[in-house]
Amino acid sequence: MLKPVARQSPTDDPAAFRAALGGWFAKHGKDYPWRRTSDPYAVLVSEVMLQQTQIATVLGRGFYTRFLERFPDVATLAAAEDEILLKTWEGLGYYRRARMLRESAKAVLERHGGNFPGELEPLLALPGIGRYTAGAVLSFAFDRSAPIVDGNVARVLARLFDRADPIDAGPMQKWLWETADVLLDRDHPRAHNSAIMELGQTHCRPGVPDCLSCPVAVFCATRDPASLPVKAKRQAIEEIDEHTALIRREGQILLSRQGRGRREGMWRLPVREKADLSPLPLLHRRKYGITRYRVSLHVHDCPAGHPAAIEAEGDEWVGLDRWAELVIPPADRAALEAVL
DNA sequence: AACGCGTGGAA
DNA sequence: TTTCCAAGCGT
Fold first, then answer.
1. Which of A50, A124, A149, A288 has the highest local Cβ count within 10 Å?
2. Which tens digit of pLDDT belongs to each residue from A143-181?
3. Residue A2 has what pLDDT?
4. CA-CA distance, A217 to A5, in Å (whole number)?
C-alpha cells in the first residue's frame, strides 16, 4: 500500500505536531482505569502488568481491578505473601514482575517513607522499573516531562521519520529516546505520552496501519508503513515434548512445586522421563508456548507403584478438593481440568 | 548485546 | 495452522 508522503517533519514544527496529536487525543482518547487516577502506585501496577502484555488481557480478564482490590496500597503489597501474590498474577505470565513489584513496594516504604519518588533516578533504582516504566510513572502519575519509548512509540517514530534501522539496536534506541524527548509536549506530558502510545495502538498499528484517518499523516515520511519498524530477527521456535504423570491415590493427586527459574513457586503436573511414561496410557495432550519453545504437553495415566510415581524433589500430595486453589500455569490447569 | 522470561489474541 | 508479538526488564 502506498500512502502520501509527508508535507513536513514533526521536528520542523513540533508545536504543530503536538497540536495535531493532542487535538485528536482530546477527542478520541480512551478511558482506561489507570487514566482516571494520578496515584503513582496504581499507575505503576498498570504499567508493570502491561509490560509485553495486551490491554485486553489486563483489562478484560480483570487483573488490574482484582490486584488493586487485594493490594490497594504500597504497604499492603509490601506485606503480601508469595502465594496470594502469585495467585493474583496467575495467567498473566512473566511472574517475576509480580515479585519485583512487591520488592519495589518494600523499597518505596523503606527508602521513601511510602511515597513514590517523582524523579527519574530513584524510580529507575526500583526493581522491575526500567526506562520506559519510570517515564510512564513520571508522566502519567505526576504529569512531569519525561519521554517514553515503548513498542508503540518506536513504531510511530520509525514510520514518521521513515527510519529502517532495527529498533532493538543501540543507535536506533538512542535516536528514539532523543526524538521522543524533542517531540514531548512539556505543557502536557501526560496527555502527549498517552496520545502517541494510543496512536500506535489505534491507527499506527503493526502490519498495515490506518493512515487515511491518521491525525498526523501530514507529518509522516514513510511511503511503506507496513515495512516498518524493522526488528532484529528473533530466535527460532523449538518444538519440545513434555511428558507428565497423572498420579493419584485416595482423594489426592501428586503435583510438583516449581523451583528456581521458570514459573518459580507454581504447581505443575510432575514431569518425568519420556521413556518411563510413553508405555503408559495417554490421557491428554495439548500445546502451549513458553518463551522460544512450542511445548507439546502429554499427560499419562500413571498407577501408584509405577517407578514414575515415586515422589521427586518438590513433589507433594494434594487433595482433589484443593488443587484448583493452587497457583497453576494455564496449560497445566487446563490439562488437569480435562483429566480429573 | 543477546537471551530468558508467559500468555493469548489477531492476521 | 502458523506466525507474530504486545504499555519491557534484568542479566
1. A149
2. 999 999 999 999 999 999 999 999 999 999 999 999 999
3. 61
4. 8
Please state, in angstroms and as integers, the Cα–Cα distance from residue A71 to each residue in A81, A98, A232, A253, A270, following that order: 11, 12, 38, 32, 32
Residue A47 among the catalytic residues: yes
- The separation, in Å, between residue A224 CA and nucleotide C2 C1' comes to 25
Cis peptide before A33 (omega within 30 of 0): no
pTM over 0.70: yes
How does pLDDT run across A221-232, given as a tens digit for each residue?
Answer: 999 999 999 998
Footprint of strand C on the protein (CB under 7 A): A 32, 34-35, 46-47, 50-55, 94, 100, 127-134, 136, 150-152, 155, 194, 197-198, 200-201, 206, 231, 234, 237, 289
**CB contact at 8 A, A306 and A278:** no
Q: How confident is the model at residue A235 (pLDDT cuts 50, 70, 90)?
A: confident
